Amino acid sequence: MLKIDQAPATEDQLYESSANGQYISGIMEVEPSDLIDHDYEGFLDLVSERLVCGDMLMDITYEVVGWNPETKAVKCQVTGDPSSTYEVNLTAPHG
Fold it and tell me: Strand (E) positions, the chain?
């Protein structure tokens, strides 16, 4: 599993994770309104978008790992399979 320090994942991180068949994982803040305003699938799309800049993250799991009292946001560890977000058969990204 590739753990990223800051979401969203970079193109290089997505390539590395996809090329090696690894899941990707990161911590993000989720506002209470994000939980209320979305159904389950909408919430999964939201955390996918925040983690990999697209809604193609598959096999998503999440766990509440903390709370930010200043922003009143829940901290979630989100993990998923990014292989459908990046075409592994392309050459490695430059940059």
Answer: 2-3, 24-30, 58-68, 73-81
Report DSSP letters for 44-61, one per residue: HHHHHHHHHSSS--EEEE
pLDDT, residue 88, reads 47
CB 30, CB 47: distance < 8 Å: yes
Amino acid (1-letter code) at residue 94: H
| Residue-wise pLDDT tens digits, 29-49 | 999 999 899 999 999 999 999
Tokens of 30: 């989720």
Name the band, by pLDDT with cuts 50, 70 and 90, for residue 11.
Answer: confident
DSSP 1: -
What separation in angstroms does the CA of 89 have from each of 9, 21, 37, 51, 59?
Answer: 19, 13, 37, 22, 21
